[in-house]
Write a structure and sequence with these properties.
The protein is of the alpha+beta class. About 15% of the residues lie in helices and about 45% in strands. It is built from three helices and twelve strands; from the N terminus they run αβββββαβαββββββ. The protein has helices at about 5-15, 65-70, 85-90; strands spanning about 20, 25-30, 35-40, 45, 50-60, 70-75, 100-105, 110, 115-130, 130-145, 150-155, 155-160. The protein has a seven-stranded antiparallel beta sheet with strand order 3-2-6-9-10-5-4. Strands 1-11-12 form a three-stranded antiparallel beta sheet, with no helix packed on it. A two-stranded antiparallel sheet has the order 7-8. The longest helix has 14 residues, at about 5-15. The N and C termini lie far apart (about 55 Å).
Length: about 170
């Protein structure tokens, strides 16, 4: 007999794959200063006053302790040139340290070059939610880059083709 929960879970995953989403790489450093990060499509703005965002992190992620105990982290909205890096940051056990696309900021956090957007955040609140943790970040600064954001749709990175009205 087929387990109805597994069928529902499978259908839910398929449904979520059909929802196009932006792609972010979220970075921080742990107490000894080692770079930590993950790729997230579960990211959105939350409040304008104060400026808040939220991003969701799997409880099983190797970097989970660094984000739940850290005070500062960065959200990078990636461009097409970062898709290999996004795959690396989404892969458990992959080396995410000391990559030439990153430079350190004043907090010792890795900043991704040429991101479409970079948000400097301080932890505002943390909430458990199922098998994930919702990280709420207060946006301390925002930098706009030159690139066009990448989408994730049907489990594939897709270039965002801007449609402009005349």
């Amino acid at each position: 007999m087929t387990d109805p929960i597994s069928i529902a879970t499978r259908r839910f995953r398929e449904a979520m794959a059909s929802f196009p989403s932006g792609v972010t790489i979220v970075t921080t450093a742990d107490e000894p200063g080692q770079w930590r990060g993950f790729t997230a499509t579960s990211f959105c703005s939350l409040s304008m006053e104060p400026p808040l965002i939220l991003v969701c992190l799997a409880d099983s992620a190797e970097c989970h302790p660094a984000f739940t105990s850290g005070e500062h982290w960065l959200v990078h909205v990636i461009t097409d040139e970062h898709t290999e890096l996004a795959t690396r940051f989404a892969t458990r056990g992959a080396d995410k340290s000391a990559h030439p696309r990153f430079a350190l900021d004043e907090h010792g956090l890795p900043v991704l070059d040429a991101a479409a957007v970079t948000l400097e955040c301080s932890t505002y609140d943390i909430h458990p939610a199922g098998d994930h943790t919702i990280l709420l970040g207060r946006v301390d600064d925002a930098r706009l880059g030159e690139g066009t954001p990448t989408l994730y749709y049907q489990r594939v990175f897709q270039p965002l083709e801007l449609v402009r009205s005349r």
